[in-house]
Amino acid sequence: MSDLRELYQQTIIDHNRKPRNFHPLTDADHHAKGHNPLCGDRLELYLKMDGDRIQDASFTGAGCAISTASASMMTEAIKGRTIQEAKSLFTKFHTLLTTPMHEPIDVDGLDKLEVFSGVREFPVRIKCATLAWHTLDAALKDDRSEAKTE
Ligand code: ZN
Questions:
Q1: pTM over 0.85, yes/no
Q2: How far apart are CA 28 and CA 94, in angstroms?
């Protein structure tokens, strides 16, 4: 457990310091904005689709370390996936974050996203971790309104 905790902290720090895919996507065909009023995190997500497959994903914005790291890791995780695969990944990720600390979690298919199980220690930060995913949902629907974690 302490290993995972350390990995969690290192991963958040690393992705916050050097966010991956952190730029606007000039040829994006899907785009959405997200806002987590609880913490003040804001981000914009860009997607380039190839049929129902996410060919490319990127984001911009400003927020806390957890929201930035989560968006960074999400863009890495969803590239090359179909809409259906991305949605099922969100479901798994959400289940991971909302499972009580002492209960076992099913991490099958989550890969690196597993480190976010550390967020369970800080329930108030769960919305920071899910903001990018809610925004992804909005972008896939091409929803022009702002995605909110509330
Ligand atoms: Zn936050």
A1: yes
A2: 26
Q: Does residue 12 lie within any of the structural domains? A: yes
Distance 125 CA to ligand 1 centre (A): 6
User: Which amino acid is residue 109, in one-letter code?
Assistant: G
Number of domains composing the chain: 1
Question: Measured in angstroms, how far is the CA atom of residue 42 from the centroid of ligand 1?
Answer: 9
In a domain, 76, yes or no: yes
| Per-residue pLDDT of the chain in tens (150 residues, 90 and over written 9) | 467 788 888 999 999 999 999 999 999 999 999 999 999 999 999 999 999 999 999 999 999 999 999 999 999 999 999 999 999 999 999 999 999 888 888 888 899 999 999 899 888 899 999 999 999 999 998 766 788 886
Phi, psi of 134 (to 5 degrees): -65, -40
Beta-strand (E) ranges in 1-150? Answer: 30-36, 41-50, 53-62, 147-148
Q: How far is the CA of 70 from the centre of ligand 1 (A)?
A: 10
Q: Which domain holds residue 45?
A: 3-142
